[in-house]
What we know:
The chain is mostly helical. The chain has one domain (12-143): Winged helix-like DNA-binding domain superfamily/Winged helix DNA-binding domain (Arc Repressor Mutant, subunit A, Orthogonal Bundle), CATH 1.10.10.10. It contains six helices and two strands, in the order H-H-H-E-E-H-H-H.
Amino acid sequence: MAFATKKGASAKLRSAAFKRVRADHSAELAEDYVEMIADLIDERGEARCTDLALRLGVANATVVKTMRRLQVAGLINQEPYRAIFLTSDGWKMAEDGRRRHALVEKFLLALGVTRETARIDSEGIEHHVSAETLKAMAKFLARNGG
């Protein structure tokens, strides 16, 4: 009986983990786009669909479709054929993503991962790491001179 209970608890834990990963994936696209929009605004003063398509390596039509979703979600403002602007919620999401990314990258570098690999890996990890793990990473870096 103990085995059945243990197995059931394990299945629930796995189910919760898969559920979280699915939720993380649904937010990942929006986070990547708003971060890229913020980067373009910081660099050029504006973001346009063609610039996003080039930087993300996707078709312009894909960007246009995603912009509609981001506008409905309240993360951007855009008029047809005009620049894209982040709302306050969009800026908050972009800044949160930048902070997570920088912390994960710094942590990987502290572990001895090469700069190039840390940059690439942190881009994916940042979307899936929990607040608890981020806090532990920050504590590790503080203790180890990171």
